[in-house]
Amino acid sequence: MDLKCIFSLVIIVSRISLSFTQNVNVVIQGSTSVAETDDNFDLKKKVLINAIKAFNSLRIKVGGSLQDQVVYGVGEVKNCPNFMKKEGSLFGFSQGCLPVERWDELNNFFNQTGVNVTFGLNALLGRNESQNEKGLWVGDWNSQNARDLMKYTISRGYKVDSYEFGNQLSGAGMGARVEAEQYGKDVIVLKNMVKELHPYPKTQPKVLGPSGFYDEKWFNSFLEVSGQEVVDGVTHHIYNLGPGDDLNLITKIQDPSYLNQVAQTYRGVFNIVHKFKPQSGAWVSKSGGALQGGAKDVSPTFADGFWFSAGKLSFGGNYALLKTTTFISNPDYYGSLLWHRLMENIVLAVTQESQESNPKKKPGNSIIFVNLLKDSSFDVTLSSYEHHRCNLRSTDAAKPNFEFKSYLHREEYHLTALGGNIQDTFDIPAMDPKLVNASTAISVAAHSIVYETIRDFHAPVCV
């Protein structure tokens, strides 16, 4: 099968200068693969259903900040109250309940839209907050309510792709935390329960965790305790822009140093997964740029596209891809949809020849250029290393082909803010690409995002 590939580059410049255009040459190494990526309200609203089905294949996580305060209205749970504001409680809310009728509605919605479901389980049930240390929850996890939910789900023929254990309980936690050793023991209990209730490996849901911020010591202890073949995906969260109420957020989102901070987290998670769980993978299970629901004047605007949280389809907070009142798409929805349609698994190595710019690789099967500067544009030319043979000598691999003559056309998508205002919440028109002569330079305007697709580029590593 001829896999589509990823040529990805973010043009980021750290100093602001007078308005001018820079020339940049990008070299695609078609014989080099640097990574691979993973494929994969009113629930009757047609606009919501269509927004999800447009992705064709989408993963939806049910959970979030309040999931560790949710009980499930099945089994022995007869009283099923809604969440209520409660001062002094975790996140300021009382314990709430997921009624079985709502679980039925959700699963009908999942079946209709064809999504893969990750369900976030309550990992604090049965525990109590320590009297000696605020925020630390102690004791063993009570798994009975989760067991009852799984048994009901199986009896109805509902499909859950994976269960994620708790939300932001790792390290220092977010409101609440659990010691790594205790969390590791409880994940073993969850894994054994999943295996018992789903005895056939091919239909067995995955077990994910810890679904929190990366803390090297905590993650290390957790994975040592849980051991091999327990966690199928090591999940972590990315909110590298800080709290949403930061008045300087619009500046941060245009600062490459803040956007690059996440690279250190990725390296840490990759290394620890490689050490303890080589058979599993590293997953980003939550991301929104800014914490605490995002920022109302930044997260739902075009500016958030520079941070680019591809694939997040949130229905709450300021970073939702759809407006919570009208379900009209925010600008990030279109960026996520383009990423999903154009990018695939294999990540190719790319380099660029310019002292003013700094390349950053991103996954996909096309090229994405993100220009953070408000007063400088770029003209980018493409070249590739010799790629017509799979077994290249090291000397051959260093020969770039600057002409790119064999490619007649490329498809371009240019995303810009209306009137140059990157905090505007405008509606982006239909996403039909421009067909451009492949030999011409790619014009990347100031404060813009550009996607490029070259349909007839075949790299050996992708075959």
Automatic annotation (TrEMBL):
* UniProt cross-references to Pfam families, sorted A to Z: Glyco_hydro_79n
Which keywords describe this protein according to UniProt? Glycoprotein, Hydrolase, Lysosome, Membrane, Secreted, Signal
Specify the signal sequence span: 1-21
Q: GO cellular component annotations, sorted alphabetically?
A: extracellular region; lysosomal membrane; plant-type cell wall
Q: Which InterPro entries match?
A: GH, Glyco_hydro_79
> Membrane-spanning regions, if any?
none
Q: Which domain of life is it from?
A: Eukaryota
Q: Where is it localised?
A: Lysosome membrane; Secreted
**Topology versus the membrane, per the UniProt entry?**
Peripheral membrane protein
Q: Name one GO molecular function term.
A: beta-glucuronidase activity
Task performed by this protein: Endoglycosidase which is a cell surface and extracellular matrix-degrading enzyme. Cleaves heparan sulfate proteoglycans (HSPGs) into heparan sulfate side chains and core proteoglycans.
Q: Which family does it belong to?
A: Belongs to the glycosyl hydrolase 79 family.
Record's protein name: Heparanase-like protein 2
- Organism phylogeny: Eukaryota, Viridiplantae, Streptophyta, Embryophyta, Tracheophyta
